[in-house]
Design brief:
It is a multi-pass membrane protein. By secondary structure, the protein is mainly alpha-helical. The chain is built from twelve helices and no strands. The protein has helices at 3-19, 26-37, 45-49, 51-61, 63-72, 77-106, 112-132, 146-156, 166-176, 181-206, 213-244, 247-265.
Length: 266
């Protein structure tokens, strides 16, 4: 792996960590950046596998809280209910993700213009929902009703279209279902753990024949950058959205999407 490839992998890892947990589509940003930088990974595995760095960032930030929940699960119904709510929300992504995996990776991931358009459309959706979301009825992400969690899980599947944003879909869904801005982001954090870990494991299995030593070097660099930058974002995000909402991210999506459309049209 030469120096230029190392720098590109580090840059893409930074992009992944900075964008994974905010509703701007980390995958969309990665694929567009890779397209304009001329970066290619076998089976788009780099883009998926470095997300594990962001998963570990969430686990690091929430380690104490997660340990308390799982330790209490044998005797605390509320802890068991929270774990079940995350698993229920995760289930639709398992079924639809496995069934549509080849189409997603070979068609949707290979269409930069679609990604740019979804960034723009998602930006407008985020701006509208940030303004019209109903009065919050659910303030605690660890106490969402099970049916609400299942609905959020189905809405998350929209993010299989690159440029939509996994966190964006789950946050918008949660807001429309009565979650507060903070709890919507936090439930998105919790749901990201099984969703991203599952995507990582399945994609690694599907592309096991095309991975090589040089690809693992790129992945390691991107992984490390994604982990560090994601830790910083997670620690900052909840406080920001509690005070300011999601409008900034809507405008960001629109600007990036328009620039991408222009760049792809030239």
């Amino acid at each position: 792996m030469d120096q230029s490839t190392t720098l590109v992998a580090a840059f893409l890892g930074l992009v992944e960590g900075l964008t994974e947990f905010i509703p701007v589509s980390s995958t969309g940003h990665l694929l567009l950046a890779g397209h304009f930088l001329g970066f290619e990974s076998a089976g788009k595995t780099f883009e998926v596998v470095i997300q594990l760095g962001a998963v570990l960032a969430i686990l690091t930030v929430y380690a104490g809280r997660l340990w308390a929940v799982f330790s209490a699960a044998p005797y605390d119904p509320q802890a068991r209910r929270f774990i079940l709510s995350v698993l229920i929300a995760f289930l639709p992504a398992v079924v639809i993700g496995v069934l549509a995996h080849d189409f997603i990776k070979t068609v949707l991931f290979e269409t930069p213009m679609l990604i740019a358009i979804m960034l723009i459309l998602g930006g407008f959706v985020l701006l509208v929902v940030d303004r019209i979301a109903p009065e919050p009825r659910h303030e605690d992400a660890m106490a969402f009703p099970l049916l609400m969690a299942l609905k959020i899980g189905f809405i998350q599947c929209l993010a299989m279209i690159p440029g939509t944003s996994r966190s964006g879909a789950t946050i918008v869904g949660a807001l429309l279902l009565g979650a507060s801005k903070r709890s919507a982001a936090e439930f998105s954090f919790f749901l990201s753990m099984p969703t991203m870990a599952g995507a990582f494991a399945y994609d690694l299995y599907q592309n096991r024949d095309v991975l090589d030593a040089s690809a693992m070097g790129e992945i390691a660099v991107g992984f490390a950058m994604a982990f560090v930058s994601a830790v910083l974002v997670v620690r900052w995000l909840l406080g920001y959205v509690s005070k300011h909402g999601y409008a900034l991210f809507g405008y960001w999506r629109i600007v990036v999407g328009v620039i991408a459309v222009i760049g792809l049209s030239i």
